[in-house]
Amino acid sequence: MTVFSHVKGLHIQMDDRKHYYFLIAILTLLVAIFFTFSVLVGTTGASLSDIFTTIGQHDSEISSLIIREIRLPRAILGLLIGATLGLAGATLQGYLRNPLAEPGVIGVSTAAALGAVLAIYTGLSLVAPLALPLMAIGGSLIVVLLLQTLAGAGSVLTLILAGVAISSLCGALTSLALNLSDNPFASLEIVFWLLGSITDRSMAHVWLAAPFILTGWLLLIASARALDALSLGEEVALSLGVNVKQTRLLVVSGTAISVGACTAVSGVIGFIGLVVPHLLRPLVGHHPSRLLLASALAGASLLLCADILVRIVNSSTELKLGVVTALIGGPFFLFLIFRLKAYYGT
Amino acid sequence: MTVQTHEHTIVNDLSMMLDQGELVGLIGPNGAGKSTLLKAIVGSRKLSSGRVMIDGVPLERLSAIERARKLSYLPQERYVEWQLPVRTVVMLGRFPHRQGFGPPTPDCEVAVDRALDAVDATPFALRSVTSLSGGERARVLLARALAVEAPLLIADEPITELDPYHQIHVMEILRNRANEGTGVLVVLHDLAMAARFMDRLILMNCGSIVSTGTPTEVINRENLENVYRVSPLNQPASHEALASPWQKMDQNN
Fold it and tell me: What are the backbone angles phi and psi of residue B202, rounded to the nearest 5°?
């Protein structure tokens, strides 16, 4: 019996792994396709060969400049931000053992947004354009310190409550800045910035955000194995050798640093961190650790796809990316609640 | 060991020992401090004073992984998030023995198969754990604890949700594990099971040990009346433990 089931067990594991690798290959291909389209699509036509000839050359033709200075940074940011939101969402859902968790739940996005709004409100963003992303990153780092102070040794519930409190406070302060702003142009800029977009971003934005984003990714990925053990609760995870406090530090810091850096260059883009992990969970056999890479790739695909849609939808004013993702994510959130209600029977 | 909150002493200056190959039952009424004592032993509840030693080494000197390999713990709460397959849940028991994200070693596969077989869970090993009945889930989580294959196993009420057949089955599994050399400490409320299967019983009340010894020595009229506040059904034969609570003491009076 044992020998038979051992062989059977190996087959199951192998099939399971093959299925996972196939999924990762498909998602990687999707990212490559959407990334290429993101560079190609726009009012100025471009071909695949244009992309390859443009990258690495510094000619001053208009089409080359558009690809190099406008579309490439936009596509890279789309990829980085989408992957971050997917990865952070999957990690937070695994850590908090809650399918409704997303990066916003620990107040990171709103704190980064507050930092950016203050840069616009005080006029610092006009004096030094990089002040905006830098203040946004500063906002998210302050959140890490606050969360560690408020909920460092407490329960998951304490962490969520602290996140909600910080998020509410930052939201209120953002509203206060809008309320007190006597410059209508600054108010409009704040509102547009809060809607979320990756239009007109340069390689400077990529270089500024990328180190923080990549650092955040490393921290989040380092927590992956512990997330599997946490499926059985903190007490069992602890008895299995998981350092629960260290895992919390990795998850909170990784989310704050990477999502904060994303919000710093794109504004608030919601719902990707919620929707993507939830869609993919059944496809990875509900393994929290396997969900991370899959969600990162799917998040990048979804954001690049949404950004392409924003560009090709015929409208006098370009739709903001954050609006489109919220329009997709909002109804999905409601669907999720109805499904959970049906699942638990109440 | 002493465990205190701001207001109460839950475990009060208590000392105990568990040998390898021994099946020990921790019994006592609700609120006696049994589960808190187990949490303190596995390190999830901080001791106010005292220490836990494994093989003469203080628990805090062991790394988290070393401790996990020596001490397997099944808590009272039957908690599983996500619709994980049964086999995956049991494989989590091998967490302290695995590193990185590679496939499980043949040793791990064999340990998981053995644990699944032991609790009769092999037929539903591929089903989602959330689709199981309470009793089936309890057995799967016991299999997870068995799969660690640690020299010490600590289980908090492992038979509470089980039908009589599987209660006896689980007690036999624990008995066999002890016979194979594992030191097993089990919190139980079923005095009949405690009397039948345990080598030794520790009776707790209000955070302290009231009585310890063989089942016959511990489960007697005096302890039932004073600690559990119940009177027994019958006078037992001299060689058997008094294991059938029958009436509340306040109904007697």
Answer: -120, 120
Q: Which residues contact B70 (CB under 8 A, 6 or more apart)?
A: B54, B55, B62, B150, B151, B152
* Alpha-carbon span B103 to A321, nearest angstrom: 40
Q: Which residues of A touch B89 (CB under 8 A)?
A: 231-232
Per-residue pLDDT reduced to its tens digit, A178-216: 888 888 887 888 887 788 888 888 888 899 889 999 999
The dihedral region occupied by B52, where left means phi > 0, alpha psi between -120 and 50, and beta the remainder, is beta
Looking at this protein, which amino acid is placed at residue B159?
Answer: I
Give the pLDDT of residue A35: 95
Q: ipTM of the assembly? A: 0.88
Q: Are A281 and A291 in contact (CB under 8 A)?
A: yes
For A260, the token pair is 């904060």
pLDDT, one tens digit per residue, over A15-38 is: 678 899 999 999 999 999 999 999
How many angstroms separate the CA atoms of B168 and A292, rounded?
A: 42
Q: Are B140 and B129 in contact (CB under 8 A)?
A: yes
Q: Are B95 and A228 within 8 A, CB to CB?
A: yes
Judge whether A231 is closer than 8 Å to chain B, CB to CB.
yes
Pick from A1, A229, A232: CB nearest B79: A232
Using a CB-CB cut-off of 8 Å, the residues of chain A touching B81 are 97, 230-233
Name chain A contacts of B141, Cβ cutoff 8 Å: 232
Q: What is the 3-state secondary structure (H, E, C) of chain B?
A: CEEECCCCEEECCCCCCCCCCCEEEEECCCCCCHHHHHHHHHCCCCCCECCCEECCEEHHHCCHHHHHHHEEEECCCCCCCCCCEHHHHHHHHHHHHCCCCCCCCHHHHHHHHHHHHHCCCHHHCCCEHHHCCHHHHHHHHHHHHHHCCCCEEEEECCCCCCCHHHHHHHHHHHHHHHHCCCEEEEECCCHHHHHHHCCEEEEEECCEEEEEECHHHHCCHHHHHHHHCEEECCCCCCCCCCCCEEEEHHHHC
The vertex-B85 CA angle with B81 and B87, nearest 5°, equals 115
Residue numbers in A near B90 (CB within 8 A): none
Are B77 and A239 an interchain contact pair (Cβ–Cβ within 8 Å)? no
- Whether A13 sits inside 8 A of B106 (CB atoms) is no
Give every strand in the sheet of B208-213, ordered side by side. B71-74, B152-156, B183-187, B23-27, B200-205, B208-213
Average pLDDT over residues A226-246: 92
Could you tell me if A222 lies within 8 Å of chain B, comparing CB atoms?
A: no
Pairwise CB contact (< 8 Å): B144 & A17? no
Mean pLDDT of B166-172: 91
Q: Please report how the helices A184-195 and A321-344 are oriented relative to each other, as an axis angle in degrees rounded to 10.
A: 50
Task: Report the percentage of chain A scoring pLDDT > 70.
Answer: 86
